[in-house]
Amino acid sequence: MKISAGTPDAMPPGLRSLSYGIFCWANRRPRALRAVGALFRLWPFAGGWFGMAARASAVKGVLTRPQSFSNSAHAANLAAGDYLIGMDPGPTYHDDRRLLDDRLALLAASLPAAADQEVQRRVEQLGQLGANKSFDLIDDYLMWIVFRSMDPLFGAATGKVVAGAHGNATDPGLQRQYLLEIRYVAGQLLAGSTATLRVQRRAELCSDALRARIAAVSRDIQQAWGVPSTASTITRNAAGLAWISHPVTVQSGALAVQELLRRSKVHRALRAEAQRLGPAGVWQNAKFRDLVREHVLELMRFRPIFPLLARDVPRDTEFETGARHNAPCSAGGKMAIWSIAALFDSRVVKKSGQFCPARNWGPHQDLRWLMFGYGIRQCPAKDYAVEILTSALIGLLILPELRLTRGEGKAIAYDGPLMSRMRVNFV
Hints:
Low-confidence stretches: none
Shape: globular
Oligomer: single chain
CATH architecture: Orthogonal Bundle
Structural class: alpha+beta
Number of domains: 1
Radius of gyration: 22 Å
Number of strands: 9
Order of helices and strands: HHHEHHHEHHHHHHHHEEEEHHEEE
Mean pLDDT: 92
Number of helices: 16
Helix content: 40-55%
Strand content: 5-15%
Largest sheet: 4 strands, antiparallel
């Protein structure tokens, strides 16, 4: 349902703001979520009462049964219209997935070189700043690295998607407008129905603008993609690809850096290795890149962008919680998947509370990527996102040491559950 300016709130006065505030508070505090998740792991029968899977075995079991636990739970929060993440398997899903896989295949040819190139350009600019000048890690660094790295997704149509049919594709103002537009659309997926009506309305306005933007250049996109799809198919997939690819990767990078700055010993050890290799050597040394990639994955384990996932229950079923008896799930209901709890399940992740990028996951290697989902519905772009963030982190390691800015108000600002600003400066 569209949220117009005069739409009354179905919830009692103040309740929506309260619930949204609690949701945002919890989403910014992964340690609190891990603590609650640990209780559900300890007493899995309690999770069964509330329809919550927390143990690794339970989470993987639910995520490998998409017919019983449906991604359609996301559909109501897709402000820009239907897309793969909210679809059940079927002809439309499979056709759209093939189209997406074809676009992502282009990233395999351009990464990590495209990301490295943009990172080096940004690092050169930032290196000219003094110790007293701060910059925004999101708006001045991550946002542009991800943007340039994902150019191949729209190919020759990228400029028109960003600036419109007659705009100047190199205009930074138009580029920033586009990136903010898709940020708010993506934010609605994370905030969901708990969001205030104002936040939902903003997401819908940005979604309308995004769909109009895509529709106006759909023929250009069709030619760039080289597919005979209908205009509606192009609009659906191009809009979805725009909002889910860039903002989610940027936000994941910001969360990873936030976690790294909390771990000064880890940060300094990485910086020491980068300094040993030198500004040129870090880009050529495969072992160092592997080391940084392992750190990115471990940082994301501690700070996943989607710590909880929802699923619809289309028919009566049950799921294995890890308790002696399975938990029933009634048709028409929903259940919650505590991915952040499963990532710290000591039954399969030894010394799960320790930060250990080189951990031997043994037969549970697939669990290491759980922050991207699991099974056939796992994020198909996960490898590319990690490559981009690996390049971004390498760039930060060859700059002077970073810290969150002090004395300018809060260094980190949030827009609901999303981090909208992260100001840092060199030590």
